Amino acid sequence: MLWEKKPIPPGNPEPVWTPQATPKLDNPIMDTTPKVASSMATNQNPTLLGRSLVVRGELSGNEDLLIEGQFEGTVNVQDHCLTVGSQGQVKAGIHARQVIILGSVNGNIAAREKIEIRKTGNVLGDLVAAGVAIEDGAYFKGSIEILREGTAGAPRALSPSSAAGAAKA
After folding, report:
1. Are 129 and 111 in contact (CB under 8 A)?
2. Is 29 exposed, middle or buried (0-12, 13-18, 19+ CB in 10 A)?
3. Following DSSP, what letter does each residue of 41-71 receive, concatenated?
4. pTM score > 0.85 for this model?
5. Is 39 helix (H, G, I), strand (E, B) or coil?
6. pLDDT digits (tens, 9 = 90+) for 14-56
């Protein structure tokens, strides 16, 4: 019958299965490299300003940026994402497509799409964006202006003088 075990004749060993080497693809479908920050959706390898760096001045670029060190000045990454890491300390005016804050920011922030302040985040400054998300436990002191789709022009961070002028009007 079919389910009965048949004896193996001597001298004729069973074939042994050996796995073949996995072929290496030139363009892998999935990237298995670890991500620096899971929130940085557009660029898998953002530029990193490391923990031990202290930088002052004007910072602009055409790629995503992760700040883990200290920065003072202005940051302009209009079409990209800026992430202030949990160890990051930024004293700057910020202009970006998206801003994610896990560390400390002292300055006005303008984002074309969204500003996220995570629970470890600390922000002192005014926010201007199409969307703002503040997690429980985060610290925020300032004002929020939500941009509507019909608003013409690029988002701008409010300066104290322009905020005072808007209050008088």
Report:
1. yes
2. exposed
3. -S-SS-EEE-TT-EEEEEEE-SS-EEE-SEE
4. no
5. coil
6. 555 555 555 555 544 444 333 344 444 444 678 888 888 899 9
